[in-house]
Amino acid sequence: MNKLIILLITVLSFNCFSATELKGSPEELQKFLHPSENIITITREAEETVFKDVAVVSVVVTTEEDKLSLALKKNSELRAEISSVLTESGILLKNINNSKFSTSPDYGWFGDKPDSYKVSNVISIRITNEGGLESIAKVVDNNKEVTLLKTEYEHSQKEEYIDKVKNKALDNVLKEKDFYSKKLGIKLHTVSFRDNNSNPQNDIEVIEVMGFRGSMAKKSYSSVSKPSIKPSFEKVIYKAKVSVSFKVE
Residue 247 and residue 208: Cα distance in Å, rounded? Predict the structure, then answer.
């Protein structure tokens, strides 16, 4: 009888000391006892290509007089006349914008007082058709004080197309989610998402247009800085990339 009791005590003691001991931080023990949820992430992209439909033409109005007040007045009157001509041709007044003007005295050979004053102001005209461009060209041709500066091309529906490619990318994600749910017989619930940049590529291109005085044979290109990349102003490419994480149930 005593031998049987001793045997039972020995077996119980062995089981007690051989039990697995769990060690670690509370976070580590939590992960061991309650495994993390199964999360999958689906990432899809979308793209839209459109053509630019707006041109912003900038011209410089420069007037020169022996008195600053006269140069300012002449510049203001000429800009008002240009605005009137352009609005009569169908360009909306809100699309004709004047920038801040600048003055520069023209000093003579002797004395500290300038011989004349120049006043320059840039007018930016937003147009949507060739008729508007022809009206601006006539203003430049008919006024020696007006010089064509540059033309920028852009897309008028930028915000709409950014939303469009985002929706398209998200629809592709949800389509993929429905595919896995149906094929695998599981339920996927959204837990997080990431919206990557969807800015258009080549949104604005600047085309430099220069005029030359004198005969064509005598003109010099030495002072003209040539762009290293040939500009292309026809297309705009909008892209979006969306990632959505789902919990599997």
Answer: 54
Q: What is the pLDDT of residues 221-237, one digit of tens each?
A: 333 333 333 344 578 89
Residue type for 177, please?
Answer: K
Q: At what angle do helices 130-142 and 68-88 cross, to 10 degrees?
A: 150
Identify the CATH class of 35-53+156-211+230-249: alpha beta
Token readout for 177 is 């989610």
The H-or-E segment that residue 70 falls in is helix 68-88
For residue 173 the two structure tokens come to 């994600």
Interatomic CA distance for residues 17 and 36, integer angstroms: 31
Q: What is the CA radius of gyration of the chain?
A: 37
pTM greater than 0.70 (yes/no): no
- Rounded distance between C-alpha atoms, residue 18 and residue 16, angstroms: 6
Q: Which CATH architecture has domain 54-154?
A: 2-Layer Sandwich (3.30)
